[in-house]
From TrEMBL:
<protein>
    <submittedName>
        <fullName>GntR family transcriptional regulator</fullName>
    </submittedName>
</protein>
<dbReference type="InterPro" id="IPR015424">
    <property type="entry name" value="PyrdxlP-dep_Trfase"/>
</dbReference>
<dbReference type="InterPro" id="IPR015421">
    <property type="entry name" value="PyrdxlP-dep_Trfase_major"/>
</dbReference>
<dbReference type="GO" id="GO:0008483">
    <property type="term" value="F:transaminase activity"/>
</dbReference>
<dbReference type="GO" id="GO:1901605">
    <property type="term" value="P:alpha-amino acid metabolic process"/>
</dbReference>
<keyword id="KW-0032">Aminotransferase</keyword>
<feature type="domain" description="Aminotransferase class I/classII large">
    <location>
        <begin position="77"/>
        <end position="419"/>
    </location>
</feature>
<dbReference type="InterPro" id="IPR004839">
    <property type="entry name" value="Aminotransferase_I/II_large"/>
</dbReference>
<dbReference type="InterPro" id="IPR015422">
    <property type="entry name" value="PyrdxlP-dep_Trfase_small"/>
</dbReference>
<keyword id="KW-0663">Pyridoxal phosphate</keyword>
<dbReference type="Pfam" id="PF00155">
    <property type="entry name" value="Aminotran_1_2"/>
</dbReference>
<keyword id="KW-0808">Transferase</keyword>
<dbReference type="InterPro" id="IPR050859">
    <property type="entry name" value="Class-I_PLP-dep_aminotransf"/>
</dbReference>
<dbReference type="GO" id="GO:0030170">
    <property type="term" value="F:pyridoxal phosphate binding"/>
</dbReference>
Length: 428
């Protein structure tokens, strides 16, 4: 029988349920629209600024790391070559350098053995949730709205996500206490709460210092972990201490990424998991066991590129990203100014005013869904992200997220003008 005549034996009903969840589709929606409407101004994708990309830097970074192997680790040329070309250890070959960066930029004291280098932060999230999800009682708490990558990792690990109220000051610690009580009454076991205290994706909100201390207190008192995602923490006017640097009770698992601060194409992230597991060493050791069966290891060449950038900048990504940070601050101020100029007099239209990061949340008295997004791309030449994607389709239908990271001043002015034309045409 010809292979094309073989009857289909698969259906969506026989595949994992996550594949039919809207959260999975949302990760691809914007890419599809960008391909379909290439001339539209994208105020959607949270990608780093591209003007400073330079292929020659890749060679500089690789050479810097090779010099480090030769001089600091006393490797011969065969050892240097093997480090780049072979699989490498599952935990990663640059954990010690990441630890030095965390000490330099975040005042985090991380032992290298507590660090697992991952294929982007996405793998770090998956590994942590896979390890924590032991049976059907286990649930994860997360702010509503929340990053869709976290939602996707939860779907893939069959981990239910319970929402916690989010305010202009980030996740609400008091509502976290309430949700912990609800979960206990329902016979559920809350393993962790995901939180992005600095310029969160998608809202752009940040937590003030008292709220950070309160959140740590709640986590310690109730015996749960905090999964801290700090992808945008460098890009703000006022840099508050990370939860991990404030943690004295071992409650924080730190999720790190070099996508915004190093090089997104390298796909290098990491997790700091220094919690002790009875009979199992560190939590990092257990995550490494899972990683060994998932991706085996993170590309040593990708790690070398990131390491070289650290080495050439005295282990400071604050220093390495000084130009980018200035661009993001400029773009944020310009976008907020253009919103005021174009939409300030429109009744019912409002937006928040983040102090850093990539994102602004706009609220309008109309339905903001995927149909409106496609209309915006086709007829107005502008792209944004409907916020309902970050609510799991259960809210946010009158909000949209704007990203300012990729744009020039001219594109910001034109992009906001196009957005304003779209919204004013639809306003009641």
């Amino acid at each position: 029988m010809n292979s094309i005549d073989v009857p289909t034996r698969l259906s969506m009903e026989t595949l994992h349920g996550s594949l039919a969840d809207p959260a999975i589709a949302s990760m691809n929606l914007l890419n599809e629209l960008i391909d379909e409407y290439p001339m539209a101004i994208s105020m959607a994708a949270g990608r780093p600024y591209e003007e400073f990309f330079d292929v020659r830097l890749v060679h500089d970074y690789l050479e810097a790391y090779c010099d480090h192997l030769r001089h600091d680790r006393k490797m011969d040329e065969a050892g240097v070559t093997r480090t780049l070309f072979q699989y490498g250890t599952t935990k990663g070959v640059i954990a010690d350098l990441i630890a030095r960066n965390l000490a330099e930029d975040e005042n985090i004291a991380a032992a290298p053995e507590s660090v697992v280098v991952t294929v982007g932060c996405q793998e770090a999230m998956f590994l942590v949730l896979r390890a924590l999800r032991a049976d059907e009682r286990d649930v994860l708490l997360a702010p509503a709205p929340t990053y869709v990558g976290l939602t996707g990792s939860a779907l893939l690990t069959d981990t239910p996500v319970w929402p916690v109220r989010s305010t202009e000051n980030g996740i609400d610690p008091d509502d976290l206490v309430h949700q912990l009580k609800r979960a206990d009454e329902a016979g559920k076991r809350v393993r962790a709460c995901y939180v992005a205290p600095n310029f969160a994706n998608p809202t752009g909100t940040s937590m003030d210092l008292p709220s950070r201390h309160r959140l740590l207190e709640v986590a310690s008192d109730h015996g749960i972990l905090l999964l801290e995602d700090n992808a945008y923490g460098l890009f703000g006017e006022d840099r508050l201490p990370s939860l991990k640097s404030l943690d004295r009770a071992g409650t924080v698992v730190y999720l790190g990424s070099f996508a915004k601060t190093g090089m997104p194409g390298a796909r290098v992230g990491y997790v700091v998991a220094d919690q002790h597991v009875a009979g199992g060493g560190l939590l990092a050791d257990q995550l490494s066991r899972l990683k060994g069966m998932l991706t085996v290891n993170t590309s040593p060449i990708s790690q070398a590129v990131v390491a070289g950038k650290l080495l050439l900048n005295d282990f400071s990504l604050i220093k390495a990203n000084a130009r980018e940070t200035a661009i993001y601050r400029r773009n944020l101020h310009l976008t907020l100014g253009e919103l005021t100029r174009r939409l300030g007099a429109c009744p019912g239209v409002s937006w928040n005013t983040p102090k850093g990061g990539f994102f602004i949340t706009v609220t309008a008295p109309l339905v903001v869904d995927d149909e409106l997004l496609e209309h915006a791309a086709r007829d107005h030449g502008v792209l944004f992200t409907p916020m309902h994607h970050f609510y799991g389709g259960k809210g946010g239908f009158n909000q949209l997220r704007l990203s300012i990271s990729l744009l020039t001043p001219e594109l910001i002015e034109e992009g906001v003008a196009r957005l304003a034309a779209l919204l004013t045409a639809r306003l009641p």
